[in-house]
Amino acid sequence: MLNGNSKTAITLLTIEPPSWTDELLNYLKDHGYLVTMMTAMDDELKFLKEQSPDAIIIVNPAGSQHFFQRIRAQTSHPLLVLITDNFTGDLPYETADAVLPPRPHYVDCQLQMLLHLRAANEDLQKQNLTLNDEVKKLKEELIQRKRTNNEVELLKNAIVHNISHELKTPLLQVKAAVSLIAEDLKDNQLSQLAVNATARLEILVKNVTLLGSSLDINLGPVITRDAIEYARRNLGRVWEHREDGTRIKVHLEDHLPPVLADKQAISTALQLLMDNALKFSKKDIEVRAVVNGDHVKISVRDFGIGIAKDQLDAIFEMFYQVDSSSTRRYGGMGVGLAIVRIILERHNTEINVESRVDEGSTFSFMLKRIDI
Predict the structure, then answer these.
(1) Residues 6+ apart with CB under 8 A from 202
(2) Which of 34, 98, 122, 305 is the most buried (most CB within 10 A)?
(3) φ, ψ for residue 291 (rounded to 5)?
(4) What is the 8-class DSSP label of residue 286?
């Protein structure tokens, strides 16, 4: 038998050989094996270094198990085969790769199969080592990326929180001053421009502040009614919506169970959805909450301009505007719905939207109920 371009090397250990040994030896030689005869079991380490056979065949069971054990203690490479016509007594099944009868053709077929399987197994082991190295490398890269992402996240959070903190106080001072000027100069065009500019600045700071609050999520039991009322009160404090409170119609199912949420974050999401609904609709808007299986479904509906189907996914992207004139017509920066999505993703839920152009839109999401 040939192994690539070289013969398969076999060491035949012939201590007290049976009568059929010569027939087996000649058959193997005639079929392409490079056979080396060995008559002693001593110094197997030296033998392995000098011979380096592909297989070792013993034709006498006596002492074979102990010899195979000594070989296996040195290396896993040679195929260890016992050939015997006497199956009585202790056979080295635990250490031998095969125990075969003395039929030359059968021995040849089994050797070819076993050597092929061993070669395939060694290739798989090499590939496995390579894959393990690649997995280890990828794990190290993943750990490094996570570390980098965590550092970026911390930096981003710090920037957002610091900006919102630093802008709040001066904005309140500007807002108070402009409000006094507007009272003294009623119907004055310049004072109205100042009021509008302050309102736009307030929206900008509000969005930064809301983004900052949406980054820290602490889940716990939340009363749905409280979250909605908290959002409505906060919205009423915004200059732009100071007179819109009566336009928000709340419809809550009786005996609503608590939900698993972060009250501040969910109130922020509801405030942004209400703000969006009021902005794009001159009519009243509806806020509803109903039990839906193991969840509570909360929805905000408006009867405004609606959204085209091809824009339903894009509206949740940061700084996206429904159309090129929306900033001028409706105000805002196009970040509110993006913040809503971020908040809900951190609650392991998603925002759904149903809309028809010129009829209005309904935004809804589900929160897991808690039975206390």
Answers:
(1) 171, 175, 238, 239, 240
(2) 305
(3) -75, 135
(4) E
Long-range contacts of 346-355 (CB under 8 A, 24+ apart): 346/214, 346/217, 346/262, 346/265, 347/217, 347/219, 347/260, 347/261, 347/262, 347/265, 347/266, 351/316, 353/307, 353/312, 353/315, 355/306, 355/307, 355/312
DSSP structure class, residue 290: E
Q: At 36, list the tokens.
A: 């080396």
Q: List pLDDT tens digits, range 135-185.
A: 999 888 888 888 777 666 666 666 666 666 666 667 777 777 877 777 777
Query: Is pLDDT above 50 for 327?
Result: no
C-alpha to C-alpha distance for 55 and 114, rounded to whole angstroms: 10
Considering the entire predicted model, what is its pTM?
0.51
Angle at 305 between CA 302 and CA 310, to 5 degrees: 105
Place of tokens 């903190």: 165
Q: Domains in the chain and their CATH numbers?
A: 2-102 (3.40.50.2300), 217-372 (3.30.565.10)
Tokens of 165: 């903190």
The number of residues in the chain equals 372
Give the separation between CA 275 and CA 271, rounded to whole angstroms: 6
Amino acid at 330: Y
